[in-house]
Amino acid sequence: MNQGFNENSLADRASKVLMNTYAQTPIALERGAGCRVWDREGKSYLDFLSGIAVTALGHSHPQVTAALKEQAEKILHTSNLYYIEPQIALAEQLVEKSFAQRVFFCNSGTEANEAAIKLVRRYATERFGPEKRTILCLENSFHGRTMGSLSATGQTKFQKGFEPLLPGFSFAPFNDLAALDRVWDGTIAAVMLEPVQ
Ligand SMILES: Cc1ncc(COP(=O)(O)O)c(C=O)c1O
Question: Is the minimum distance from the CB of 194 to ligand 1 under 6 angstroms?
Answer without folding.
Answer: yes
